[in-house]
Structures are given as C-alpha cells and as structure tokens.
C-alpha cells in the first residue's frame, strides 16, 4: 500500500516503518498517525512479518505532534474528537513486537510514540523530551504515565515540568532505552535485533510481550500468576518440544509457530 508520510519495507520477516515528513522533523499529523496505525495493523496481520522496527530520520525520530495542525483546535475538537486516542490505542493493541529505533529528536508525541513501542534502541545522537509544557499544554499519549514507569517520578517530573531534553547516555542510565548504538549503525542494529526475535517461536514471543505488558496493568501477585499460566501453557505447543529437543541434541531449533 502506498503511503504519503511513512515508508514501509518488508525484508527477512521484519517490517521496517520509517516516519517520513522531513520538512517537519516527522511531526505527527493526523495523516501520519492514521497511516502508521494502518501500517502497523497490516504488519500485525501479515504472515510474512514477525517483528516490526519503527524509525525516523537521522535528525528526528519525531519532533512531537504537529503544532501547526493542533494550534487552532478547541477543547471540543480535542476532547470531542478524542485527539490522538484511537491511533495510540491501535498501536498498543499490536501483538507482534515493535522496536523503536530512535535517532535525533524524540520529543513530545515522538517520545511518547517511542515509549508505546516494546523497547527503544537509541542512537548516540538521540534526544528525548516532553516539552509540551512550553506550549501551554501537557503530554497527551503517555509522557506523564509511561515515562514515569520507565525513569521514575523524579526524572519524569523534571522532564515534564522543565521540558528539558535527555541525551542518549542519560536515557540508557535511567532505563528509558535498552541500548545505545553508534548513530550510523542504528537501523542495522535494530533490524538485527528484530531478526533475532523473528527466529523465535511467535507463540512464545507473543506470550512474553503480553506478560511483560501485564506487569504495567496489575499487581505483582496477579502478574506472576498471569506469567506462570502463560509459561505453563507453552507446554501445549510443538515449539516447546522442538526448542528443548534441539537444545538436548545440540542443534538449532526449527520453530513452526505451532
Ligand atoms: C510542526 C515542526 C515541529 C512540530 C519541528 N517542526 N517540530 N512542525 N510540529 N512539533 C518544523 C519547524 O517548524 C520547521 O519548519 C522544521 O520542522 C525544522 O524545525 P526547526 O525548528 O527549524 O529545527 P531546529 O532549529 O533544528 O530545532 C529542532 C527542534 C524544534 C528543537 C526539534 O523544531 C522544536 O522545538 N520543535 C518542537 C518540539 C515540541 O515542542 N514538541 C512537542 C509538540 S506537542 P519550517 O517550515 O519553519 O522550516 C506534542 C503533544 C503530544 O507533541 C500530545 C500527544 C501526541
């Protein structure tokens, strides 16, 4: 499918989605968010895709929601139209893993979009921030909620109240990103992580993603029970037999998602 604001390539069972509004540092306008939701939904349904990488350009992952498009909106437009709600809900319902590969600015909605993915790999030049406070608003799709769970209250307050940016080293130190890689290698490193995931049994990948995400939604006791039941249910799969037999026979496992 042809898109206006994103580029989608599928290779080696990985869908690479690039945000592509270079004139606006990939600011998230309605078209981009709708196209991204559609592309992610399509990748989730496509049997040839086992993992997704979401990236931007070297200068910007995304510099936030499109300020030009938002500036004239009224409360009725925003609340009545559930501004950004449907698209971000779609992203959080995708069952295949999504890696955010962040280079340059990930600000406001850009930082929030990266956090809505399953994990973030950052380039050395990455800069994260929730500068909405400078525009007389606040974060709207996770900047006060997901960021707090990633980096804790003190840093989340600092970022949301002062609007300052965090560089890649601080983001890694504080747990916002899983790893930092040299800027020119960002996409190849993210694709190589995605290919590694694509080799696993998709059933166990989905169960692992669902179980980690469950930890945000429930108590420790309930989360541990969810995880244990999911773990136990893996013994109903052929892939569990294959994975363990392969280990014992000292060979590579051939998973079949069954
Ligand atoms: C619309 C944007 C934009 C944005 C940049 N541009 N960010 N357009 N919305 N969020 C446009 C600029 O207007 C400019 O277009 C072009 O991209 C290049 O940007 P410059 O500012 O000239 O680049 P630079 O000097 O390098 O500064 C980069 C920057 C700055 C520090 C990232 O652009 C910036 O502060 N952007 C806004 C960041 C922000 O406040 N984000 C939060 C948005 S609110 P022209 O046409 O002038 O060349 C938000 C709410 C989230 O995200 C709520 C839920 C989604």
TrEMBL record:
InterPro entries registered for this protein in UniProt: ClpP/crotonase-like_dom_sf, Enoyl-CoA_hyd/isom_CS, Enoyl-CoA_hydra/iso, Enoyl-CoA_hydra_C
Pfam families per record: ECH_1 (PF00378)
Keyword Lyase appears in the UniProt entry: yes
Enzyme nomenclature, EC number: 4.2.1.17
UniProt keyword terms in alphabetical order: Lyase
One of the record's GO molecular function terms: enoyl-CoA hydratase activity
Cited NCBIfam families: PRK05862.1
Family: Belongs to the enoyl-CoA hydratase/isomerase family.
Designated name of the protein: Enoyl-CoA hydratase
Organism expressing this protein natively: Paracoccus maritimus
């Amino acid at each position: 499918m042809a898109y206006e604001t994103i580029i989608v390539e599928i290779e080696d069972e990985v869908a690479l989605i690039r945000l592509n509004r270079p004139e606006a540092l990939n600011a998230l306008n309605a078209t981009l968010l709708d196209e991204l939701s559609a592309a992610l939904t399509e990748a989730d349904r496509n049997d040839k895709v086992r993992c997704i990488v979401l990236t931007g350009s070297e200068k910007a992952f995304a510099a936030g929601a499109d300020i030009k498009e938002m500036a004239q909106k009224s409360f009725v437009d925003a609340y009545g139209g559930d501004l950004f709600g449907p698209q971000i809900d779609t992203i959080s319902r995708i069952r295949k893993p999504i890696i955010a590969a962040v280079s340059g600015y990930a600000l406001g909605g850009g930082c929030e979009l990266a956090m809505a993915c399953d994990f973030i790999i950052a380039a050395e030049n990455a800069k994260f921030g929730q500068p909405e406070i400078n525009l007389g608003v606040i974060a709207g799709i996770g900047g006060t909620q997901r960021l707090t769970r990633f980096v804790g209250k003190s840093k989340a307050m600092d970022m949301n109240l002062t609007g300052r940016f965090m560089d890649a080293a601080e983001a890694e130190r504080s747990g916002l990103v899983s790893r930092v890689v040299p800027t020119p290698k960002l996409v190849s490193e993210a694709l190589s992580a995605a290919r590694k995931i694509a080799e696993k049994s998709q059933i166990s990948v989905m169960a692992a993603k669902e179980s980690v995400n469950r930890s945000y939604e429930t108590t420790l006791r309930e989360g541990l029970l969810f995880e244990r039941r999911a773990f136990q249910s893996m013994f109903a799969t052929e892939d569990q037999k294959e994975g363990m037999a392969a280990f014992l026979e000292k060979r590579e496992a051939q998973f079949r998602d069954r």
